[in-house]
Amino acid sequence: MKDFFLSIIIPVYEEGEALAESIRTIDGVLAPLEIRREFILVDDGSTDQSWQVIKELAQEVPGVCGLRFTRNFGKEAAIFAGLAVMNGDACVVMDADLQHPPALIPEMVRLWREEGYQVVEGVKRTRGQEGLKNKICATLFYRLLKSFSGIDLNNATDFKLLDKRVVSALLQMEERNTFFRGMANWVGYKRASIPFDVPARQVGKSKWSTWGLFKLAVNAITSFSSMPLQIVTMLGVLFLLGSFLLGIQTLYMKIKGVAVSGFTTVILLQLIVGSTLMISFGIIGTYIARIFDEVKARPRYLLAETFNVKDSAND
Ligand code: UDP
Ligand code: MG
Known about the structure:
The protein is α/β, with parallel strands linked by helices. The protein is 51% helix and 17% strand. GO terms for molecular function: glycosyltransferase activity. It holds the Pfam family Glycos_transf_2.
């Protein structure tokens, strides 16, 4: 297997404490495979000693390359920065906190080398020690995404092995608001999945806030489906039908000489229609905001510093 070249891409944000240990562990798992490897560590604007640790690691572990963003651009941007500079025949994208078990990598590599799978995904068997709120929100999100876009990402993770052809397909997708998990599914290719149990985080804590997750979810749904817009249209049609029936009834009552009463109905209708309109504007507005983001065509990230990285790294 010596002639294969594997890139390990790891987004790093405030992981100073655990990073060195993680890389050593991953390197230890890969060593017996005797494959050429590089570690692309993308520092997503950490304020702790992460960048220092990355530079020190480069002295200790062969094949460590570093990229540092000018600020925190998010995990998605960090993954794409890694994809843009990787040199391997395939890459493995994984977290810095060992919540993506490195022990799975040899099996991923085997499926890729021996069985010709171009995408090998780590899929959560259990959702680890997540809170109930997270579990409910995640289930709801994946259901919505599936029924809107047909893309089934339930229990999918960012832990993936991708062949370099898949990587170049991903790099052709020029959207600014990326959703790696969805995009890696959208491209197709021959795929396999490996189930795993998510271990608890050893050091530090998860960087995701509820608001951050909500933004990711909205981003994912608006990127992969225009169904919410169709729902707005369908609601409009439904309301029109309703008002048509109500209109006929009102006219009939009028002809029969029964005075039309119904203050409550009027108020309720106003409130229902008013709030539905506002939600609809919100949905349309969200798509317009997405279009605005895309036409501005700003870079996905800006690099402050790199080492051991081929040029043209800035996206
Ligand atoms: N991460 C990042 N930028 C961010 C937040 C997180 O690059 O703004 C990285 C982080 O360093 C880790 C991975 O994304 O390697 C997963 O983050 P975390 O463990 O906080 O998320 P969780 O495991 O809860 O999904
Ligand atoms: Mg984690």
